[in-house]
Amino acid sequence: MLLDIMKKNKCNEVYLIAEIGQNHQGCVETAKKMILTAKKAGCNCVKFQKSDLKAKFTRSALDRRYISDHSWGKTYGEHKEYLEFTKEQYRQLQAYSNEIEIDFTASAMDETSLDFLCDLKVPFIKIGSGDANNFPLLTKAAKLSIPLVISTGMQTMSTVDKIVEIMRQAGNNKYALMHCVSAYPTPSNDCNIRLIATLMRRFPNVTIGYSGHELGVVITQAAILTGARIIERHFTLDKGQKGSDHRCSLDPDEMQTLARSIDEFKSKDYLSISTRSATEVISILRGGHQLEQALDESNANEKYILDSELPCRLKLGKSIVASRNLPEGHIIQAADIAIKVSEPPGIFAEKFFEIIDKQLKQRVNEDEPITEHALSI
Ligand SMILES: CC(=O)N[C@H](C=O)[C@@H](O)[C@H](O)[C@H](O)COP(=O)(O)O
Ligand SMILES: C=C(OP(=O)(O)O)C(=O)O
């Protein structure tokens, strides 16, 4: 189904992804229970998040203290280690998903994890918003034969244009772009659902989807009626649990409501039309202030980083770091730099190719951020 949607062979189908993410609390048995519950709720796919912590984070980012009601460790690294499943555990979860016949995949949070997911032969690989500006990762992923679902949260339209250019240069049309706002939860007035129609017009040959972090299902239903044909929502067994994502997740009843609404839209032939106006969508979904805020047209033609996305961009946005010790005066080459979550951040990842051939006016040690200050003018 997913490939048919990506190739636009089917416009009246919606592929529903339950983003288990890290809502499994680091427990494989809980993860299996969530997989079965997502299947029963009517989801097409369950998705996890695969990280190789040293490939994704600098030492400084792993060592930063993580004081939060949602932390499983004194440092961010301890927290992430607690939540990270092993490759063997991934193989167990994939086998279980295959056994109960629901698609299984994950986000590749770094190049090491991309290679691992490739080896697992998952039906598609997710590129999360945090890596939408990670052009080396996208360039590598674009050359794979595995379809990609690429989220665009906490990014600008120029970065989205660059993603599409990378995929075009790779001759890859087996991908989808997901409208997304990286705020947990996303306020209704920041959802900007009409941007889905803008993306559809800007990239007519690309399947557009929606990865939502708002509360409830009605805004996601509006995204579907506006044209989104791949939907991702975080999934939880209990919203009250410890963990950053539970509050903006859908519980089993909500996920079932969303899945059933997709069936209802299909039965009423609502999906044979590729997109609908905000007025039509509000009428079909019987209005409401939350919906009207989410469908407001005022910011529908441009995509920029929202204030509500800044906490996530600071915590999980990727920037440029030295991949080895670089002396003062060094002329930067691609092999000298890497893209990671760094604390403090360096130059944001989307500038990766722009700083090549620039000269360092100060030494930068391996795994340290490369800042504007370190570059000669
Ligand atoms: C941008 C991105 O990757 N966001 C992910 C997907 O939406 C989230 O699941 C984060 O991994 C999660 O919110 C991190 O929470 P903490 O910092 O408590 O581990
Ligand atoms: C961050 C992720 O997704 P999104 O950007 O769609 O929230 C992810 O899939 O890991």
Automatic annotation (TrEMBL):
Q: Give the InterPro entries listed for this entry.
A: AFP_Neu5c_C_sf (IPR036732), Aldolase_TIM (IPR013785), PseI-like (IPR051690), PseI/NeuA/B-like_N (IPR013132), SAF (IPR013974), SAF_AFP_Neu5Ac (IPR006190), SAF_PseI/NeuA/NeuB (IPR057736)
Q: Which SUPFAM superfamilies match?
A: AFP III-like domain, Aldolase
Q: Which Gene3D superfamilies match?
A: Aldolase class I, Antifreeze-like/N-acetylneuraminic acid synthase C-terminal domain
Catalysed reaction equations from the record:
aldehydo-N-acetyl-D-mannosamine 6-phosphate + phosphoenolpyruvate + H2O = N-acetylneuraminate 9-phosphate + phosphate
Q: What is its EC number?
A: 2.5.1.57
- What's this protein's name? N-acetylneuraminate-9-phosphate synthase
What GO molecular function annotations does the UniProt record carry, in alphabetical order?
N-acylneuraminate-9-phosphate synthase activity
Query: Keywords in UniProt for this one?
Result: Transferase
Q: Does the keyword Transferase apply?
A: yes
Q: Where is the AFP-like domain?
A: 319-377
List this protein's GO terms for biological process.
carbohydrate biosynthetic process; carbohydrate derivative biosynthetic process; N-acetylneuraminate metabolic process
